[in-house]
Amino acid sequence: MSMVVAVVGSRVEAELIAGMLQGHGVKASVSSDDAGGMELPLQAQGVRVLVPDAKAAEARRLLDSMSLRRSRPPKTNRFQRWIVRVLGGGEAGS
């Protein structure tokens, strides 16, 4: 099973974090509900960085040491929330 260790505002940021974790020997992947990268505004809901359960503590320690971990999606403005709602992505962070 996988565990979420970070939720960030863009796929690019999530990929950089996953790459940093992989560089330290922690297998990591990125997950988002953005229609496979086709609906970028849906990333306003947050892009997740996942690691195996057994490596979660190590990943969090690495992220904390670099001040990279966020526990929830970044705040969105009214326009971003409207775009997410129009595109059918549900509620975005307030």
Question: What's a concise summary of this model?
Answer:
With 94 residues, the chain is α+β, with helices and mostly antiparallel strands. It has three helices and three strands. It has a single domain (2-86), classed as Alpha-Beta Plaits (2-Layer Sandwich), CATH 3.30.70.
* CATH level 3 topology: Alpha-Beta Plaits
Number of strands: 3
Order of helices and strands: EHEEHH
Distance from first to last alpha carbon? 29 Å
Segments where pLDDT lies below 50 for 5+ residues? none
- Overall structural domain count: 1
CATH architect. name: 2-Layer Sandwich
Gross morphology is: elongated
Q: Number of helical segments? A: 3
Helix content: 25-40%
Write down the overall mean pLDDT: 80
Write a structural description.
The structure is a single chain. This protein is of the alpha+beta class and 94 residues long. It has helices at 11-23, 56-65, 78-86, and strands spanning 2-8, 29-31, 47-52. The chain has one domain: Alpha-Beta Plaits (2-Layer Sandwich). It is elongated and about 40 Å long. The chain starts with a strand and ends in an 8-residue tail after the last helix. The model has no long low-confidence stretch (mean pLDDT 80).
